[in-house]
Amino acid sequence: MKKIAFIVAFLLVAGATWAQKYAFVDTDYILENIPAYTAAQQQLDQISNQYQKELETMHAELEKMYSDYQTEAVLLSDDMKRKREDVIISKEKEYKSAQRQYFGPEGELYKKREGFVKPIQDDIFNAVQEIANEGSYAVIFDKSGGMSMLYTNPKFDLSDQVLQKLGYKN
Which residue range is the domain that position 53 belongs to? Predict the structure, then answer.
């Protein structure tokens, strides 16, 4: 009796597993076809370039200060040397602080990226979720991420459906 119950349970589980629907999307492709994302990326690139130029200017000033110090060090008294070194060290700290402020994990660029791109990503996620519910999909993979997919059948690619759900045409 236990054998029969085990076989029936196995067949039910196996049947349920085989009946699952799977699909995939390519979020890179989807994002490329959303004009708001392209505009956000361009804005982020401009902001990043602006921050980078500011840092390069600060770095050039720091290099000049250090170079001048090395040139004049032999003529300076010990007290003057310490003062100049303190100024250089202070400027280095300011430079590193600016780097973290602009490009750090919680920096300005990260916050701006989150503000510009996150709403678009949320819309994509919601559209995928709606399609999954409507189509009774068990799993929808994203082939653009770090996941390796050796083969994907194009008939299971829902990327265009996601774009349509968002109101865009490819």
Answer: 21-166
